Amino acid sequence: AQTLGTTDKDVYGFIHECMSFLSDINGLDKLLHMALKTGEVNFKVMEMLDSANTGAYGHPVPTEVLITPIKGKAILISGHDLKDLEELLKQTEGKGINIYTHGEMLPAHGYPGLKKYKHLAGNYGTAWQNQQKEFEAFPGAILMTTNCLMEPRQTYKHRVFNTGLVGFDGCEYVTHKDFSKVIECALKEKGFTEDAPKDTVLAGFGHNAVLSVAPQVIDAVKTGKIKHFFLVGGCDGAKPGRNYYTDFVDQAPQDTVVLTLACGKFRFFDHKLGNIGGIPRLLDVGQCNDSYSAVQIALALSKAFNTDVNSLPLSLILSWYEQKAVAVLLTLLHLGIKNIRLGPTLPAFVTKPVLDVLVEKFAIKPITSVEQDMKDCMAGH
């Protein structure tokens, strides 16, 4: 948000307040209060980020994204920073280089201000933990923005460029958004030598796009065409047990809708679930740091049905891995959302006393089996 010119001094002030608080921790109740306050401030920050992104690039619109490569020179951009992507697109225009997104950059294809660049060719690869295999196979330059860079292998390290907050020994670091060396590298590499068989996914279902068809969605719920909504998303990782999320989505009944966000979606983002009630059954609502859209959709549905979020036919099935996922979870708890299922294992810092509080106050549930969790969700538990 700050990169795009959106800041708030109260947010910076809260960081100082947290540091002071952590120097004098005093009891579980005070910790819980501060954690929920963190969720409240994080909601404000997500709102700022949404405003910054949509203010700069427009509201995302449903967009068909190519996920198979096409012939030509190529640059792969990963991370989260949309401004870096914009600058790269500007600097590569007319140079005969196709730009591919990777990981959390996939939702960028939905923004009008970015999709207007014809050489934004598609998305290549999946989540961060697969990048050593995927980066090895990519025949061009790789630009890594923000975080989630795994240790590059020697075989492709010379093609990896870092910028912003990310860096790695032996990889060239780019400053001042001057991507000339990235472009030079891409032109030297062989690129893709032929078109692959075409395959696509849909992206761009931010809150504005989904709420623009809210009347159809609400009517589909009232007439019984849509029985339930699932939000299945969060952080992905390599730990065994994450196939749960793939199986959950594949086993979701035909009269349900799956909202997804963050890199957890790569467990099932290319599965063809069809349409229901005038919308696709699988809706990608954005990046991990853009969970604001998912929250706004839930709040809008609760308003439309004159109830609270916890009374909606909506279940949250979240995968946990790192700190952004925790910040989003704290926001959901601040909003009073209950019955969230977490997995594949609980965070290591969730001690027994902390878990007891989360279960008592928010009915947090560790995931169990797909079949049991699906049955409980459909029954409203």
User: Helix/strand/pairing class, anyone?
Assistant: alpha/beta
Helix content: 25-40%
Radius of gyration: 21 Å
Note the gap between the termini: 37 Å
**How many β-strand runs?**
16
Low-confidence stretches: none
As an assembly, this protein is single chain
Q: What order do the SSEs take from the amino end to the carboxyl end, as H and E?
A: HHEEHEHEHEEEHEHHEHEEEEHEHEHEH
Largest sheet: 6 strands, parallel
Approximate strand percentage: 15-25%
Number of helices: 13
Shape: globular
Average pLDDT score: 93
Query: For the largest beta sheet, what order do the strands appear in spatially?
Result: 4-3-2-5-6-7
Notes on the protein architecture:
The protein has 381 residues and is an alpha/beta fold. The protein has 13 helices and 16 strands. The strands form 4 sheets. A 6-stranded parallel beta sheet has the order 4-3-2-5-6-7, with helices on one face. Strand 14, helix 11 and strand 15 form a beta-alpha-beta unit. Helix 1 runs antiparallel to helix 2 and helix 2 packs across helix 11. The longest helix is centred in the N-terminal third of the chain and has 30 residues. The model has no long low-confidence stretch (mean pLDDT 93).
